[in-house]
Amino acid sequence: MAVFARPRQAFVIAGVLGLAVSATACSSGDSGESNAGTGDCSAYEKYEGHDGKTVTIYSSIREIEADRLDESWAEFSECTGIEIDHQGSSEFEAQLPVQVDGGNAPDLAFIPQPGLVQRFAAAGKLKAASADTKAMAEQNYSPDWLKYGTVDGTFYGAPLGSNVKSFVWYSPKTFQEKGWTVPETWDDLIKLSDTIADSGTKPWCVGVESGEGTGWPATDWIEDLMLRTQTPEVYDQWTTHGIPFNSPQVTEAVDKAGQILKNEKYVNGGFGGVRSITTTAFQEAGLPILENKCALHRQASFYANNWPEGTKVAEDGDVFAFYLPAVDPAKGKPVLGGGEFTVAFNDRPEIQAVQTYLASGEYANSRAKIGDWVSANNKLDLANVPNPVDKLSVELLQDSNTVFRFDGSDLMPAAVGTGTFWKGMIEWLNGKDTASVLSGIESSWPN
Question: What tens digit of pLDDT does each residue of 270-281 get?
């Protein structure tokens, strides 16, 4: 689901669109080094010629993250003379279509739902990215990412901010004291869970309560297990209804997730049994790790923001995260995540200039230095990523063995992705059998 629709992505940032300058010029200036804060405008020469112009951007990003956005492009604006007017709204998803349909569309929008990008493109509301924006994006992002900004062969938007969901949080200190080691395969993870359970501690703590969005953390489990039990191609078929929701492939993934989530021996440390999962707030679900009431909590990179003030989040700290291991590491490293895509509703030259800049390595490094931000941009220098978990996320995104797939429920029709899928997982955790739950979701898929 979208940043605006899901509390789980409340910490994610954004992206933008286009430019009328040669691809060669873009390439020559797109390094991992950032001139931000140096007062040197040479890196922005290819974006000049639009002094006094204004580009409007609309997104779901507010408060401190919006301030960080303004800071991230401040030097670009000063050097090029292009004013960027960003507006963030908690009603982004509802208001963006209203603005577009009312003839008052922003120049650019940061859209965290590939499905919403497809919807606007199909309606003829979006402008195709310029050749230069496309060239910049192709230099800096993998095909796995670019496809989510492409509709019917036309490229509309480069990714910008990202998040990684395939993480398990743990306490390095406790692991060292107990002699536990970070697992490298799914079988290792189950053996570790058994070892922890045999020691008298519930190994896992889980929470999927999130107000109107209750259930979304459980769908992330299923998406991660789909990527680990099936091929990426089958995952893609699942998200587009190329295979039924109650197919054997999906059943296998759900049952494998149930190996942990529906195991009274494993959950729910600090809260109760399996059924307590549906009433445990996702924000609080990992906190029992700090009290040694559980040892493992699967949640995205942005969960770093949920630890109490003063908690050291690092490989040698109070808490850290490890990659949720693959079933068969020899088949690659599946990574589930999300992010935003920069799309344009207008295509004036200054809009294209901003779009291309925000797809560049220059911008990625400028924003990363401010902190609390992740991008799949391959020009992002790890030295510019201060947060250890963010650094771990970028390493995964830049790993050549990584097979990235976008959050599946964000790709599905809303009636399913934010509707029956969420609700079905609640029913499943509360005791309903897998076959009945998946058949119910399958019957809800729009014709």
Answer: 999 999 999 999
